[in-house]
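Hi R.,

Here's the chain you asked about this morning:
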Amino acid sequence: MANTAEKRRFAGVVAAVLVLDLVTKSIAEARLPRWRSVPVLGDFFQLQLVYNPGAAFGIHVGPYSRWFFLVLSLVALGVLAVMARHTKPGDRLRFYAIACIMAGATGNLIDRVRSARGVVDYLLFTVGPLRWPNFNVADMAVSCGAVALALALWREGRPHEAAAPPGATAPPERG
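And here is the predicted structure, written out as tokens:
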């Protein structure tokens, strides 16, 4: 279990990412024309407002997508909360990775609750004919947090090698 200072930092990361996500989505909805790209760096980086009723990469499960992904988000948040509670003190990578994922999931959950149109996406990258699906700050937080969490869990699962004292030599081989 984390100490009080770590819990405050965790809450701060969640709040900062969530506020950034909600503010940028609000600006995008207020300022961007729907489905029309606004070039920022030519065709490479554009702003384009779209609503995604499905999940990442436009995954859709029919007319009940909104409710399915809403419930799935709540379950994921519950699992993440348990993981956060069981994170060892000092395991900052795992702790902050979970905070980022929770913030992003909450940001997109708020969109699903707020509107049947779906999650507000507005960032678009293209390279020649290749087009990355539109995304938002919450998606970035979930993606970066997931990679960091995978790394933290991988490190946690590796056997710990006993560190040899400086100047120590390997024991002689028997043969």
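One quick note: The chain has a mean pLDDT of 87.

Cheers,
M.
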